[in-house]
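ok new one. same drill as before - structure tokens go in, u give me an amino acid for every spot. 180 of them this time. try not to just spam alanines like last time pls lmao
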């Protein structure tokens, strides 16, 4: 595992299974920032195949999401785009897909500065906290869109901060098998 150092401390390690999160850096940035805004910037949904029943609890469900640092202006703010993709499957056929993006903005807390943090630290913060702060909105959006499409029973779990980030370029993935 290769270690990456920065001016604010250890940003984390990377390996085959993912990148370790340095919660000392995330905690320091959490104290230096405050959540300023969460906005949906893109949403699309479609039904691919019609099925004989519309109870989502009986279908396999997969949600994956990616996050990206948009800006990390020292002394100013940190912004992230969190993209998500939700799929519902019945008999190995995709039935529904919902895709979207949220913009998450953090501003400096009163008297705080971001100048002591490098881009890697800001990126790690955006990857962990951006998803954490966007997740309740994603859960509500996915559930509401599926309900409007006629599917009942879509309830995604609460998301907890992981100990590792996926390898760069990979997405987080949560899967649940339907009750047969």
């Amino acid at each position: 595992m290769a270690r990456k150092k920065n001016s604010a401390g250890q940003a984390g390690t990377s390996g085959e299974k993912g990148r370790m999160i340095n919660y000392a850096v995330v905690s320091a940035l959490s104290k230096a920032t405050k959540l300023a805004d969460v906005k949906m910037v893109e949403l699309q949904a479609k039904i691919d195949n019609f099925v004989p029943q519309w109870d989502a609890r009986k279908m396999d469900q997969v949600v994956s999401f990616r996050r990206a640092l948009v800006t990390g202006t020292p002394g100013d703010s940190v912004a992230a785009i969190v993209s998500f993709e939700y799929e519902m499957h019945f008999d190995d056929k995709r039935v529904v897909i919902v895709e979207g993006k949220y913009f998450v903005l953090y501003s400096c807390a009163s008297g705080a500065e971001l100048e002591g943090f490098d881009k890697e630290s800001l990126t790690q913060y955006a990857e962990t906290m951006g998803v954490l702060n966007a997740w309740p909105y994603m859960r509500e959006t996915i559930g509401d869109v599926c309900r409007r499409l006629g599917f009942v029973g879509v309830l995604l779990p609460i998301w907890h901060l992981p100990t590792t980030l996926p390898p760069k370029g990979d997405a987080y993935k949560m899967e649940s098998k339907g009750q047969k």
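Strands lie at 2-6, 9-15, 18-20, 33-47, 60-73, 77-90, 93-108, 164-165, 172-176. and btw The first helix runs from residue 23 to 32.
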